Amino acid sequence: MSSSSSTTDLAAYMQTLGRQARVAATLMAAAPTAAKNRALLALARRLREAGPALAEANARDLGAAEAAGLSGPMLDRLRLSDKVLATVAEGCEQIAAMPDPIGEITGVKRRPTGISVGQMRVPLGVFGMIYESRPNVTIEAASLAIKSGNACILRGGSEAIHSNLALAALVGDSLAEAGLPRAAVQLIDTTDRAAVGLLISAPEFVDVIIPRGGKGLIERISAEAKVPVIKHLDGNCHSYVDAEVDLEQALVVVDNAKTQKYSPCNATESLLVHEAQARAFLPRIGAVFAAKGVEMRADPAALAILSDVAGAQLVPATEADWSEEYLAPVISVKIVAGLDEAIAHINRYGSHHTDAILTTNHASAMRFLREVDSASVMVNASTRFADGFEYGLGAEIGISTDKFHARGPVGLEGLTSMKWVVLGQGEIRS
Q: What torsion do the CA atoms of 96, 98, 104, 110 make, to the nearest 10 degrees?
């Protein structure tokens, strides 16, 4: 096959997916809640039953990824462990148990003219999802699409192609079992990168694009897409230890925020410590990090204190470190003069994803919540909680650091919009 005919075939394939998605979106928007819930429960059942087959498909992807030299964090994201499968199955069940937002009418007010005006929640239509590594995203995207009455076209990374195809087959069977269109969730079955360009430039078929992956991918999608994009570029999350703080609690929370898992975008990458607590806190958290092999890139004041920690991996921080998303056992450390400096530092260098304060001072906590300009802001909790499943959304389609439409973990409501509805009894405008 020539390259020109191959390109033509790919364009025709993508148009077929788009047309099928448009038809399916109309059917899904009108689908009864009971049918959507049946599909979700069927999918949860299949995920639990298909363990061996999914493990075999995932092993093929992992073997190829290792041979290609993928790094540890990337392999971790690619792995479909029993725990991951149990979590996504539970997520399907949780979404099935949630109220159906579609068709809900709110804010109805009677106007002096006699009409009643309100808003109805409706599906977005068709969303395209472009993601890397994590095959569990296939199920999260599919389950949220089903419950929110949308259709979706999924494009996973080439490194997870066998895992994603196996998962997508389970989704299709579950939709069919519930009497819903298989085309409500379609997976692009080619690893040809040109498919991405065709997907993000098809407003006639796709209403919104959601990229989920590395910064390079998201920057490219944001620059080239001809349809709206829900995105976040970085996960440079901060934990700030305030002057008034429960040090034992702070030690446990900061440790979890950094080391519970290094690869997610909600792991803490920057530690800020109030100068009043630096000598009490830094040697203790430094010892924890040293024991776990976490490299600390610190400012001069923090380096001076941490230099006495046995086994500590210390590096002088550069300006670039304050903005870095490491996704690895590395953390930047800075001593700040107070809450004002902490907030200013986070708003300047952070990615507006998730930031936390450890404090016993209520006024400081409230200022931090109001003034830190991030999608999720936390008090005395690990940044690792910034997740749709942990927030009770059932699952998430991704994290948005945008300020329009959706912000933070994007769950069911993030995949809907509101339209105005007017209820009358023959009123006319004079």
A: 170
Q: pTM of the predicted model, to two decimals?
A: 0.84
CA distance 372 to 345: 10
Provide the residue-wise pLDDT of the chain in tens; the chain has 430 residues: 333 446 679 999 999 999 999 999 999 999 999 999 999 999 999 999 999 999 999 999 999 999 999 887 778 889 999 999 999 999 899 999 999 999 999 999 999 999 999 999 999 999 999 998 889 999 999 999 999 999 999 999 999 999 999 999 999 999 999 999 999 999 999 999 999 999 999 999 999 999 987 778 888 999 999 999 998 778 899 999 999 999 999 999 999 999 999 988 999 999 999 999 999 999 999 999 999 999 999 999 999 999 999 999 999 999 999 999 999 999 999 999 999 999 999 999 999 999 999 999 999 999 999 999 999 999 999 999 999 879 887 677 888 888 888 888 888 999 999 999 999 999 999 9
The number of beta carbons lying within 10 Å of the beta carbon of residue 112 is 5
Angle, helix 247-259 to helix 278-291, in steps of 10 degrees: 40
Joined together, the tokens standing for residue 388 give: 């749709």
Nearest to 38 by CA among 87, 82, 100, 80: 100
H or E element in which residue 57 lies: helix 51-67
Is the separation of the CB atoms in 356 and 239 below 8 Å?
Answer: yes
- Encoded tokens for 352: 């507006």
Distance between CA 339 and CA 364 in Å, rounded?
Answer: 7
Strands 416-423 and 116-123: antiparallel
